[in-house]
Design brief:
Elements (H helix, E strand, L loop, with lengths): L3 E7 L4 E7 L18 E4 L14 H9 L12 H7 L10 E5 L5 H8 L3 E6 L2 H10 L6 E5 L13 E7 L10 H11 E11 L15 H9 L3 E7 L13 E7 L3
Parallel strand pairs: 4-5, 4-7, 5-6, 7-8
Antiparallel strand pairs: 1-2, 2-3, 8-10, 9-10
The protein binds S-adenosylmethionine.
Length: 254
């Protein structure tokens, strides 16, 4: 009898496997120690079935967008950045800005609408497609589908501002020093790093992985950044109130 083929997902790593039985017996999963074991197990490479929880892979984020597991999405810019971009507040002079892990690009467009020359980067196809769909001539944004950690050298020292919101908490926490190096590389001398840090709630696991003020200050002050301002915003959206803090640093060159 030809081997019967069934496909199952081994949940410990979310990779699909093909299992082949010689006798067509029903699947018992997890496998019974008494038998009924498949005669052959082979990982399946099938892009439609491929799933991963690896935050370093665009596929994880693409699956989240596809399955509407994008609970981070506010559906518009955060009120905190709307306040910062108010011309009347004159807090920030428009300049060239890069937005890392931009998602659907609401914050990128908010700055662009207010005179900033914005580049928005995300490696997830759906995020980039959404940014194109939502783009408007009043808020022109250059959209790049790229892994932030491999951005080209041509962008080095190109930006007056780096904008961070919910990208730092999305990357593998082991890569945070690499992220701080990236911000340092992208900024011009005396450039500004705007970091709306979330979530500062000490949660376990992620994404989003917890961040802390101590860690952020250490990462950036160690690289010669000077803290210009630090606040616990009163205008955070209510579910994030108290769990996010705004840091504005300057890459300090004497
Ligand atoms: C939690 S979402 C936040 C999106 C957006 N900042 C927002 O607030 O709506 C994180 C985003 O970062 C992107 N991302 C994660 N790691 C990335 C990487 N290494 N390079 C580029 N984008 C990345 C994901 O695709 C996802 O769109």
């Amino acid at each position: 009898m030809p081997p019967k083929k069934r496909v199952v997902y081994l949940l410990h790593n979310c990779l699909p496997y093909e299992l082949f039985w010689s006798d067509g017996a029903s699947i018992s999963f997890p496998f019974s120690p008494k038998g009924n074991r498949p005669v052959r197990i082979k990982p399946t490479i099938n892009s439609k079935m491929y799933m991963t929880t690896d935050v370093n892979s665009p596929r994880k984020w693409e699956a989240d967008y596809e399955h509407k597991s994008d609970g981070w999405d506010l559906g518009g810019p955060t009120p905190i950045f709307k306040r910062l971009t108010l011309r009347s507040s004159r807090q920030l002079i428009p300049g060239r800005m890069i937005v890392l892990g931009a998602g659907r690009g609401y914050d990128a467009r908010e700055f662009a609408r207010n005179g900033f020359q914005v580049t928005a980067v995300d490696f997830a196809l759906q995020a980039v497609q959404e940014m194109h769909r939502l783009s408007s001539p009043e808020a022109p944004v250059e959209i790049l589908q790229h892994d932030i950690f491999t951005l080209p050298e041509t962008l080095t020292h190109s930006f007056d501002y780096v904008l961070e919101y919910t990208c730092f908490c999305a990357i593998d926490p082991k890569r945070r020093a690499e992220y701080a190096d990236l911000v340092t590389r992208l900024l011009k001398p005396n450039g500004i790093y705007i970091d709306l840090a979330f979530p500062l709630d000490g949660r376990r696991g992620g994404p989003p992985f917890a961040v802390s003020a101590v860690e952020i200050l250490d990462l950036f002050q160690k690289r010669g950044f000077k803290l210009l301002s630090h606040e616990v915003p009163a205008d955070s959206i209510s579910p994030r109130r108290g769990a996010e803090e705004l840091f504005i640093f300057q890459k300090w060159i004497d």
